[in-house]
Amino acid sequence: MAIWYLANQPFSPANGAEWNQYIEWSHLTQLKALVGLDGLLCKRPYNGQVEAEDWNHIVKRDFLLDYFHDLDYLLKKIGDRNDVQVLALEMNPTEASVAAFQDKRFTFLGYDLVWRMGAISALTNGGGYPLAFDNAELSEIGLVPHLVRAEKIKTDLRKNYLGGGHTDCNVWALWKMNR
After folding, report:
1. Domains in the chain: how many in total?
2. Contact between 91 and 147 (Cβ < 8 Å)
3. Sheet holding 4-8: strands in order across?
4. Percentage of the chain exceeding pLDDT 90
């Protein structure tokens, strides 16, 4: 089990007109806020810039240079900013690995499905994939609550939409830090 960390800015009604346009486009009217890995919607507070010291603390894999394996370093990097959320993440988790993460500073939120080639969520920034899932299945923060369902959505995206959009996805488990 590899737990990584990410800081991003929540996307919510506080974003004003941008939020209203997003809800109108996405038809995700149940959302109270968006807590996920989509880098276009939940922007990174460090603007995707990798500083020299970051290389000692980041996940060195394709498309994951915003992800840190060192929580203490990430917390130091963002400082006392209260406009960011800190997420703990696991890519392609199992039920057992999700249950094994017991850091009391974090609360489990659900699962996101993110394009393997970048930070685009098929759940919240794909325009809808009705042969894979119904928008009403997503929680009020834009996540799927159960791993079995997230895995089925992943399979149905590949089966019904492969080659169209951002549908070749990894499933990510998300926990939010209680700050």
Report:
1. 1
2. no
3. 4-8, 85-91, 169-177, 106-115
4. 80
